[in-house]
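> forwarded from #structure-qc
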């Protein structure tokens, strides 16, 4: 065997891997020598079976469980999330996560809005009062347009006056004496109590009446009087409606009287039917004694006009004027309760 020179002798290249680092044999020998001197190095622990590399372990050790477990954990989490999410969108979850928050938001919004409105109203009381007063005035204006007014109840007629007395009792005494010869009625007017012996709707009709009574030797004169309703009659709508019906009935009767020439001629049949309808409408509203008295006198006047007879003209004329005067006096009392 031939000996090779030392220069040509080459040490085999041995590589030692320790803790993931590669070392040559010379480096490892030097470290080993130093380790022998340093007793603190734990060789057993350093070269335990868990750390000794082998040819089969040259590749990185992969812990399959380390990946399998998280993988299963993630899959389980996903399964649980899908199952919980699928359950969470049931009816109860819909109410809980959608409707309840929406309702709460609505309540909070309303509360805030009402609070702001109250603050605004407290800071602006005048504007609120103005709106209220305007609303009330508009409503009252609408009611007034539908209700009866004082002007609706006012009635103007022509009368033949026989006297004026400061004492109502004296006027009634004189009127009672006049009734034994003809019509007469007393009525309070400005300045006292007047005695009327005739009534007409127009100035022309009153002129005919004036001539008749003067022909009998009476001291009389013609005048137009307004019968104005008081504010009291308007407080109760039923009373004001009834008074309006009575006024229309009196106007219808006065019109019939002038058509019949104070009972000397037959009235128009159509006008008679109109008065009959007015009477029926007024009769529905008779609530007190004075209203019933008015209707009774109106009914008597209508009968007289419907029974015209030339043979008994004087009696018809006196009866018609007396019933019309009584009807007018009752109306004056009704609109001045």
């Amino acid at each position: 065997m031939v000996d090779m020179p030392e220069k040509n002798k080459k040490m085999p290249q041995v590589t030692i891997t320790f803790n993931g680092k590669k070392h040559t044999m010379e480096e490892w020998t030097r470290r080993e020598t130093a380790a022998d001197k340093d007793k603190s190095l734990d060789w057993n622990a350093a070269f335990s079976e868990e750390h000794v590399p082998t040819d089969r372990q040259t590749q990185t050790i992969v812990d399959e469980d380390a990946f399998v477990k998280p993988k299963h954990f993630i899959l389980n989490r996903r399964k649980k999330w899908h199952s919980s999410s699928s359950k969470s969108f049931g009816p109860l979850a819909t109410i809980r996560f959608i409707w309840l928050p929406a309702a709460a938001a609505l309540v909070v919004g309303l509360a805030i809005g009402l609070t702001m409105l109250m603050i605004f109203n407290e800071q602006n009381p005048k504007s609120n009062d103005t709106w209220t007063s305007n609303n009330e005035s508009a409503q009252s204006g609408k009611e007034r347009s539908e209700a009866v007014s004082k002007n609706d109840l006012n009635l103007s007629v022509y009368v033949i006056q026989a006297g004026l007395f400061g004492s109502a009792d004296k006027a009634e005494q004189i009127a009672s004496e006049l009734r034994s010869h003809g019509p007469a009625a007393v009525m309070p007017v400005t300045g006292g109590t007047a005695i009327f012996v005739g009534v007409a709707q127009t100035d022309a009709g009153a002129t005919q009446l004036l001539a008749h009574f003067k022909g009998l030797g009476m001291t009389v004169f013609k005048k137009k009087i307004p019968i104005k309703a008081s504010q009291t009659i308007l407080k109760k709508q039923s009373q004001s409606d009834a008074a309006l019906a009575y006024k229309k009935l009196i106007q219808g009767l006065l019109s019939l009287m002038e058509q019949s020439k104070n009972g000397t001629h037959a009235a128009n049949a159509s006008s008679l039917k109109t008065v009959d309808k007015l009477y029926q409408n007024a009769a529905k509203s008779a609530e007190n004694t004075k209203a019933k008295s008015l209707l009774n006198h109106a009914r008597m006047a209508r009968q007289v006009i419907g029974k015209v007879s030339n043979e008994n003209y004087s009696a018809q004329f006196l009866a018609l004027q007396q019933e019309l005067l009584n009807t007018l006096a009752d109306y004056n009392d009704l609109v001045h309760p």
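QC bot note: The CA atoms of residues 15 and 212 lie 164 Å apart. The radius of gyration is 61 Å.
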